[in-house]
Amino acid sequence: MILNVLKVFGLSAFAFFIGLAITPALTHFLYKRKMWRKEQKEYAPDGTKLEVYKSLKKNDAKKVPRMGGILVWLIPLVGIFLMYLIARLHPSVLFQKLNFLSRNQTWLPLFTLVAASLVGLTDDLVQIYGKGKYIAGGLRFSRRLILIALIALAGALWFYFKLETDSIFVPFFGDLFLWWLFIPFFVLVMLGSFSSSVIDGLDGLSGGVMATVFAAYSGIAFFQNQIDLAAFSAVVTGAILAFLWFNVPPARFYMGETGMFGLTTTLTVIAFLTDTVLVLPVIALPLVVTSLSVIIQFISKKVFHKKVFLVAPLHHHFEAKGWPHYKVTMRYWVLSVVFAVIGMVIAIISK
Hints:
mainly alpha
């Protein structure tokens, strides 16, 4: 037990301090290469060209680079292989325990994190060097969707054929067998999680919310005795906190799609590995409502030709109502902690 606690908390702290150490070099590179959007975005993520949105995003013209999210996938990638290499070179009990590379628990989330983050990195580069005045900028939405769907399909096939998973757990009821329908269900869940990447819109917002969600899943995996998965989630949490250290107002850099794509899609994999996919909307409620706000706004405009929110996503709606950005961020953080705790309790006691 002591070694398990050391593994999870120790590796999380290690990831955090490594992130603090390498971030100055990363920010120096990003500023030197001028890795920021060259043109101010004119459209809200809900597709509306609004003066209120442009006034909210007046600071986009500031020279603050994107791609700070490189930290949240580079640190876990390097960390997991570093621990594996050390364990192979020094096969002591301690180093063997610190190795958290495992076929059943961490291969797939690591693959998803890196693959989706590379898609996001490409999107960021297109936004930086391209025009991208259409909605969200960067890669066209259809191309993003296809690439993420391919990653999701690879994950679904891994679960179905390699891990022989064809059911989901319904809290307090038991297993619901989907058989081959598990594959499209997995893909749809990942695409839904991916849509929540729109939460990356205010300094400190996405970092605080995502750190809380991954910390919750680290705790769930620990209680399930999936220690390697708990360590992986904890390392991601530590990396996000290192990013957040430099992202609180005034932001030194922004996460960008390279961070959000990887984090949101990896959540799906971890939720399925812990058999808590139906609890994911509770644990990640701020992500869910933020994504839903864009969907509701889009449908309302298309069908009823009127807006539900002043601006979507939801955090910009509160800004438009006059809330300071730091108040929006802090209240998102509070709600993230509350619902993460509620979700953890449901996940732990429902089996």
